[in-house]
Amino acid sequence: MNATNRRDVAKAARREELLAAAARLMAERGYASVRLEDIGAAVGVSGPAMYRHFSNKHDLLAQMLIDVSRRLLAGGTAVIDSRDDPSTAIRRLIAFHVDFALTEPDLIEVQYRDLSSLDNDARHDVRRLQRHYVDLWVDVMMALLGVPRADASTRAQAVFGLINSSPRLPDLPTERARALLATMALGAMTVDLPD
């Protein structure tokens, strides 16, 4: 690997480290209470060095939430692209999202609380990516359950609410939480409605 590639890799790693620190601090204190300098200090970077990665705090929040939305869409798309039958696909989508929720609770908290702090363009980008992610789930549920799109969308949103509540749930061992959330999500998603 040449020097330019090593620098690019190091810069990308530092950016990821800064985003993780920002998510942690913003989840704890809220977006408005965290300064770029606080984030830099958390990983040993000076305040001015933060501007090598982000133009300002709004830019950092936008990159954070757009990045996580892209990662969710990419992961969901990978599940769909595997061409599993709908029953297997929905289980894999649930497992993917549960794993995300259990490993990225800070991002869930920031998304929930601070999405409104984004400017209109960034918020639009996040919402567009989220809609595409939801549509992956809706299409699978329609194929699996034979329900109308509105019904499938309601089920998907409710399941996201259930899974994304994990940062506020009592502490459980990770594997127990993973199994419990996945089982509850599948049950909620596939429940038969009374006639």
TL;DR?
By secondary structure, the protein is mainly alpha-helical.
Plain-language structure description:
This protein is an all-alpha fold and 195 residues long. The chain has helices spanning 3-29, 36-42, 47-50, 57-81, 86-103, 105-114, 120-145, 149-164, 174-190. The chain starts with a helix and ends in a 5-residue tail after the last helix. The mean pLDDT is 93. The protein is elongated and about 60 Å long. The longest helix has 27 residues, at 3-29.
What is the string of SSEs from the N terminus onward? HHHHHHHHH
What kind of sheet is the major sheet? none
- Rg from Cα: 19 Å
What would you call the shape?
Answer: elongated
Helix content: over 70%
Query: Per DSSP, what share of the residues sits in E-state strands of 2 or more residues?
Result: under 5%
Mean pLDDT: 93
Number of helices: 9
Poorly predicted regions are none
- First and last CA, distance: 64 Å
Say how many strands there are.
0
The class by helix and strand makeup works out as: mainly alpha
